[in-house]
């Protein structure tokens, strides 16, 4: 009798776990271009926030759609994906914006020294603040 209850409990937990995993795996991708920004700021502000207290900055920015304005210091294509580097006042850090496929097609219109605004998902900080799935909003 006790063994039967344990087996039923394990079965129920297994079914719930499988359902949750299925939902997470099939979660729709966020279209950054069509989604309103959670936060709008400058490249200097976000790098300063991460430099001064990374744990607070992670709470404020991680996995959120961020709109960042700054001056382009480098434009490149790597593995068929565009990457824009935004200058900051920090000598060692910058904001790296990994462009979406749609934005990568417009990369030829961008020049170093140009002021730009991009919107992307913040994935963290490793000397540079990283934004992915970025759209160019000018």
Written account of the structure:
- The protein is elongated.
- With 138 residues, it is α/β, with parallel strands linked by helices.
- 33% of the residues lie in helices and 36% in strands.
- It starts with a helix and ends with a strand.
- Helix 2 packs across helix 3.
- It contains four helices and six strands.
- The chain has a five-stranded mixed beta barrel with strand order 2-3-4-6-5.
- It has one domain: Beta Barrel (OB fold (Dihydrolipoamide Acetyltransferase, E2P)), CATH 2.40.50.
- The mean pLDDT is 88.
Notable traits:
single chain; 138 residues; alpha/beta; OB fold (Dihydrolipoamide Acetyltransferase, E2P); five-stranded mixed barrel; 4 helices; 6 strands; elongated
Concise account of the structure shown:
The chain has 138 residues and is an alpha/beta fold. Helix content is 33%, strand content 36%. It has one domain: Nucleic acid-binding proteins (OB fold (Dihydrolipoamide Acetyltransferase, E2P), Beta Barrel), CATH 2.40.50.
């Amino acid at each position: 009798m006790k063994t039967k209850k344990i087996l039923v409990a394990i079965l129920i937990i297994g079914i719930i776990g499988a359902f949750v995993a299925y939902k997470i795996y099939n979660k729709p991708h966020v279209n950054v271009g069509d989604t309103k920004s959670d936060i709008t700021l400058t490249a200097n502000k976000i790098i300063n926030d991460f430099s001064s207290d990374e744990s607070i900055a992670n709470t404020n920015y991680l996995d959120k759609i961020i709109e960042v304005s700054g001056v382009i210091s480098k434009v490149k294509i790597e593995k068929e994906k565009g990457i824009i580097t935004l200058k900051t006042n920090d000598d060692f850090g910058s904001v790296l914006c990994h462009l979406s496929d749609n934005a990568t097609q417009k990369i030829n219109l961008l020049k170093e020294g140009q002021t730009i605004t991009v919107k992307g998902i913040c994935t963290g900080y490793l000397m540079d603040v990283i934004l992915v799935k970025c759209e160019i909003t000018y």
